[in-house]
Specification:
single chain, 4-stranded antiparallel β-sheet, 6-stranded mixed β-sheet, 213 residues
Length: 213
């Protein structure tokens, strides 16, 4: 993760009302025969949100402003909980130690990056999880749940490190379950507020954009 990141979470009550989600970039060229060529410009999606839609009161507005000032606008990144996609399973599901495959043991490697796979019969996309929520991560090796003492978690990078005596054996599939946040920053250095308009139902736009490691 680039420098300039605060390990604090955007106020949850505001995050639950935000709008936004994953954004991708695809070049599409229309050919003379009516067909088209499509090319992926970004390997991974980049999430974008508008936190203004989560503001329902003057108190909410002040909380957003206070957080904005504490981050110095765009200068410092922070954690944000996506209101829909924040678990290794579906949002209404229960996290288990077999939710996501994060690697296969070779008897030597001790460090595994948390990832989440989005896929179906047509294809799949793998997303690195850099900001897991401490205390929520559970691990299994070869289908057997690992004890919390068997590994350590770096909650700032999403890397799981097994202790020397518990390094996964060759061929053992390592899986994980977890909650996670999205590393973001404000995508503006200015928030315009008109209290007259706010009382009439107009809310300020507070754009957020995902930070890539």
């Amino acid at each position: 993760m680039p420098t300039g990141f605060h390990e604090v979470r955007f106020p949850l009550r505001l995050a639950l009302g935000t709008s936004g989600g994953p954004v991708r970039r695809t070049d599409i060229v229309s050919l003379s025969n009516g067909r088209e060529n499509r090319n992926r410009r970004w390997r991974d999606a980049r999430r974008q949100y508008d936190a203004g839609s989560g503001i329902k009161s003057i108190g909410d507005l002040y909380a957003a402003l206070e957080f904005f000032e504490a981050r110095a606008g765009q200068l410092y990144g922070f954690r944000f909980r996506d209101p829909v996609d924040f678990k290794s399973c579906a949002p209404g599901g229960v996290i288990t130690a077999t939710d996501q495959v994060i690697g296969t043991g070779d008897g030597v490697a001790a460090v595994f990056q948390l990832v989440k796979t989005y896929g179906d019969a047509g294809g799949a996309s793998v997303r690195d999880i850099a900001k897991p929520v401490a205390g929520t991560v559970v691990i299994s090796v070869g289908g057997i749940s690992a004890a919390s003492a068997d590994f350590t978690l770096d909650a700032a990078t999403g890397r799981v490190t097994f202790i020397p005596s518990k390094i996964p054996a060759t061929g053992a599939v390592v899986k994980a379950g977890f909650e996670f946040d999205v590393p973001v920053r404000f995508d503006t250095d200015r928030i315009d507020i008109d209290l007259g308009q706010f009382q009439a139902g107009r809310i300020p736009s507070i754009p957020l954009v995902e930070i890539k490691p």
